[in-house]
């Protein structure tokens, strides 16, 4: 079987995950999935072999010459926690934990006010929610140009969420919960439990009756799901929702991630049969490789390949920090649920198969989420060069939501991850978000 080189980084991720969990290749089931992996022969040791031989990289990158400069850094040192990073830039930082109804302990990092407000607080709260395989740390990536710091300096009370299963929300109230039970969730649970739990805690803590929500990628998806589960009473708790790279259906995505769709069930069966229920739950899964200077350029290429190519806006100063904090982990079931959107129009609940759906939903097909329940004022911000969230899928979603007050289309090379990592994030995006928030508050007064 001959495969496109575009698939290599994704197969690398899979083989690294398997090898990190100690699953020897001879235990893997014989199937089309095994043929797929064997055809590229890219187990972890082979990947390290390639990393040590830069002269071979053009074979993988199609002749593209890549460079990276990790000598210059935004931060004084690596290994700092989000609160330490916040404090290093002169902002106040707090850590809050809240428990969901089903026992997951979620951590939020708070910036209660700006660096220039001399200890005063009381601004309108903003919940900022990360995307897939990410965490609160992502919103700090580019230093003072990050939306979290800019909002704090603009007088807002900033709360950085962390959903269940990521680096900072890995605890559970049941100390004896099994790996299989702990990781048995998808973005449906993020929307049903995580988003409302964090929202209600913020409102109770601050005394406000409403807040703003900013979501990126899966952070938008879980918001739509939360509205389906909780309806108008929950929608009334938001001044507005800013959807960065909004996600729902994904049938037009350009990313080579879509090429894995036919193999999803077999990949899931193989991993679960070997006791693996999480996906990239350890930062060491990739940072051990990508943190090597000789591998940095190829890892950067892998990011571009999955999410879109924009080397001009890639902040080299933040690269070491990015690699140190990504990926932050999710469940295998969540990855499967997301992948189900690659081949089915619309946004649907988890597909358990015909018999499972009959038992769970009383029908053979998973029901769609009711997007008409998203009555919150929504600000859409999307880009042309986003390989994950295609313009056609965004436009479909825009047609389903009843209260879109503004659509901002970013032309050119702006990509899926530029929404959190772009070098000129303040000028290209964040100033407009803050202006729109201020205007919304003025109109609400």
From TrEMBL:
| Pfam families associated with the record | Abhydro_lipase
Q: Which InterPro entries match?
A: AB_hydrolase_fold (IPR029058), AB_hydrolase_lipase (IPR006693), Lipase_euk (IPR025483)
Recorded superkingdom = Eukaryota
Name the Gene Ontology molecular function terms of this record.
Answer: hydrolase activity, acting on ester bonds
Query: What UniProt keywords are attached to this protein's entry?
Result: Glycoprotein, Hydrolase, Lipid degradation, Lipid metabolism, Signal
One GO term of the biological process aspect: lipid catabolic process
Q: Which family does it belong to?
A: Belongs to the AB hydrolase superfamily. Lipase family.
Q: What is this protein called?
A: Uncharacterized protein
Organism encoding this protein = Cyprideis torosa
């Amino acid at each position: 079987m001959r495969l496109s080189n575009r698939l290599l980084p994704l197969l690398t991720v899979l083989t690294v995950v398997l090898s990190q969990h100690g699953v020897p290749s001879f235990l893997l089931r014989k199937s089309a999935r095994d043929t797929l992996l064997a055809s590229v022969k890219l187990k972890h040791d082979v990947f390290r072999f390639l990393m040590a031989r830069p002269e071979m990289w053009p074979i993988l990158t199609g002749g593209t010459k890549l460079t990276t400069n990790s000598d210059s850094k935004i931060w004084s040192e690596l290994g700092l926690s989000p609160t330490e990073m916040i404090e290093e830039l002169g902002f106040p930082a707090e850590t809050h934990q809240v428990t969901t109804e089903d026992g997951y302990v979620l951590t939020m990092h708070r910036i209660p006010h700006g660096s220039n407000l001399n200890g005063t607080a009381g601004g309108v709260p903003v919940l900022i929610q990360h995307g897939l395989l990410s965490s609160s740390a992502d919103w700090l990536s580019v230093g003072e140009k990050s939306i979290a710091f800019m909002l704090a300096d603009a007088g807002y009370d900033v709360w950085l969420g962390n959903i269940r299963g990521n680096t900072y929300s890995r605890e559970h109230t049941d100390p004896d919960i099994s790996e299989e039970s702990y990781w048995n969730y998808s973005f449906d649970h993020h929307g049903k439990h995580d988003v409302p739990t964090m929202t209600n805690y913020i409102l109770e803590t601050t005394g406000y009756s409403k807040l703003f929500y900013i979501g990126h990628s899966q952070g938008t998806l879980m918001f739509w799901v939360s509205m389906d589960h909780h309806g108008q009473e929950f929608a009334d708790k938001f001044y507005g929702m800013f959807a960065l790279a909004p996600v729902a259906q994904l049938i037009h995505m350009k990313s080579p991630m879509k090429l894995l769709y036919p193999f999803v069930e077999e990949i899931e069966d193989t991993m679960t049969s070997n006791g693996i229920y999480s996906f990239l739950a350890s930062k060491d899964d990739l940072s051990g490789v990508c943190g090597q200077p000789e591998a940095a350029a190829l890892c950067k290429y892998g990011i571009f390949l999955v999410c879109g190519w924009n080397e001009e806006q890639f902040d080299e100063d933040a690269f070491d920090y990015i690699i140190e904090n990504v990926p932050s982990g999710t469940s295998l079931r969540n990855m499967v649920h997301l992948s189900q959107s690659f081949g089915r129009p619309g946004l649907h609940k988890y597909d358990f198969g015909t018999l499972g759906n009959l038992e769970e939903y009383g029908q053979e097909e998973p029901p769609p989420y009711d997007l008409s329940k998203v009555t919150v004022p929504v600000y859409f911000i999307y880009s042309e060069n986003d390989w994950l969230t295609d313009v056609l899928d965004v436009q479909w979603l825009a047609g389903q939501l009843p209260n879109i007050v503004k659509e901002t289309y970013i032309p050119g090379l702006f990509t899926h991850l530029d929404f959190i990592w772009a070098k000129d994030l303040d000028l290209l995006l964040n100033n407009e978000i803050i202006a729109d928030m201020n205007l919304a508050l003025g109109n609400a007064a």
